[in-house]
């Protein structure tokens, strides 16, 4: 990561540069591809009050540039507040990336459904429901008896979706 730390209207000491550099390097823990960072520290005096401005610009690969501005009376506090806000933004970006990656893994697992079983993943076979016309419970029971299915989903005469299933004791259940 390219890091640039500059001071406007005052001279930066080595201690300030080291402090800011270490804080910026800590942002790499989010695993995002930070190409460059630029921290501009400037002194600001308005109405006889001294203060400091800190502006941090982070260039991320394949993303927009993140710019964060912060003011404070103390220079170190301005740096800390700026980097704290940058940390929140990068954490959110990291969460987006990992969440999307996790959803992609689920999608890949779903695409494998119906193919050969994989260790740790139960085999799920999708089926089409025949919901063309309402059926009597007796009709659905006959269909289930004449097939090798464990359960049968149908719409009854009252337009309720019902499930009739084979029980282990040889009887049938109805939801």
Automatic annotation (TrEMBL):
Q: Taxonomically, which superkingdom?
A: Bacteria
Q: Which InterPro entries match?
A: HPF/YfiA_ribosome-assoc, RHF-like, RHF/RaiA, Ribosom_S30AE_C, Ribosom_S30AE_C_sf
* Keyword Nucleus tagged: no
Q: Please state the span of the N-terminal signal peptide per the UniProt entry.
A: none
Limits of the Sigma 54 modulation/S30EA ribosomal protein C-terminal domain: 122-174
Is Cell wall biogenesis/degradation found in the keyword set?
no
- Please provide the record's keywords in A-Z order: Translation regulation
What NCBIfam families does UniProt report for this protein, alphabetically?
Answer: yfiA
| Quaternary structure, from the entry | Associates exclusively with 100S ribosomes, which are dimers of 70S ribosomes.
Write the protein's name.
Ribosome hibernation promoting factor
Organism equals: Campylobacter gastrosuis
Gene for this chain = raiA
């Amino acid at each position: 990561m390219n890091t640039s730390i500059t001071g406007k209207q005052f001279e930066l000491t080595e201690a300030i540069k080291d402090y800011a550099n270490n804080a910026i390097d800590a942002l790499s823990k989010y695993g995002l591809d930070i190409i460059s960072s630029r921290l501009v520290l400037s002194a600001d005096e308005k109405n006889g009050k001294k203060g400091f401005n800190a502006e941090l610009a982070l260039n991320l690969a394949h993303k927009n540039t993140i710019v964060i501005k912060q003011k404070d009376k103390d220079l170190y506090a301005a740096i800390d507040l700026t980097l704290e806000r940058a940390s929140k933004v990068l954490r959110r970006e990291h969460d987006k990336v990992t969440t999307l990656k996790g959803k992609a893994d689920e999608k890949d697992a779903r695409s494998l459904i119906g193919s050969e079983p994989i260790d740790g993943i139960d085999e799920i076979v999708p089926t089409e429901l025949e919901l063309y016309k309402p059926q009597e419970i007796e009709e659905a029971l006959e269909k289930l008896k004449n097939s090798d299915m464990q359960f049968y989903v149908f719409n009854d005469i009252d337009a309720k979706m019902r499930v009739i299933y084979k029980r282990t004791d040889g009887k049938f259940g109805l939801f």
